[in-house]
């Protein structure tokens, strides 16, 4: 399971044999069933997760009690409620496995130790958090400026596997629309 993580890290920084050993030591493999909440709102996120296989989403409830999906992660990649994980504060989001998932996870104290023991992981962690900030800025901009149809077309082009593995109500919420609007857009595109 650690091979995918090693490969991702190696694309960005040089990974030594001792770094690989540390990675395997600190990242714990876990398997979760479909629809399992693995981090709950009103609690401090315990882990940063690396998605080996499966689909995971971050969501919260709006003031009407509706689920709002803020992030869908497909492999390979990292997911958690980043700002709450790094500050070790209570999150307002839930993390749920949409499908059965193979994950690697690491606690904040272990991540801190890993970064102290390896400059490679310090550099790589900094890169991942930078990418997370950049992604969130870009996503906020797209939700504000792109039409619903353009957001859907962009998702189709960049992450088509999400369309085949994630329920439409989660995709609609992620794209900032209701399921009826998404259904209408999909029908128009098929024509």
TrEMBL record:
<feature type="domain" description="Cyclic nucleotide-binding">
    <location>
        <begin position="31"/>
        <end position="117"/>
    </location>
</feature>
<dbReference type="InterPro" id="IPR000595">
    <property type="entry name" value="cNMP-bd_dom"/>
</dbReference>
<dbReference type="InterPro" id="IPR014710">
    <property type="entry name" value="RmlC-like_jellyroll"/>
</dbReference>
<protein>
    <submittedName>
        <fullName>CRP-like cAMP-binding protein</fullName>
    </submittedName>
</protein>
<dbReference type="Pfam" id="PF00027">
    <property type="entry name" value="cNMP_binding"/>
</dbReference>
<dbReference type="InterPro" id="IPR018490">
    <property type="entry name" value="cNMP-bd_dom_sf"/>
</dbReference>
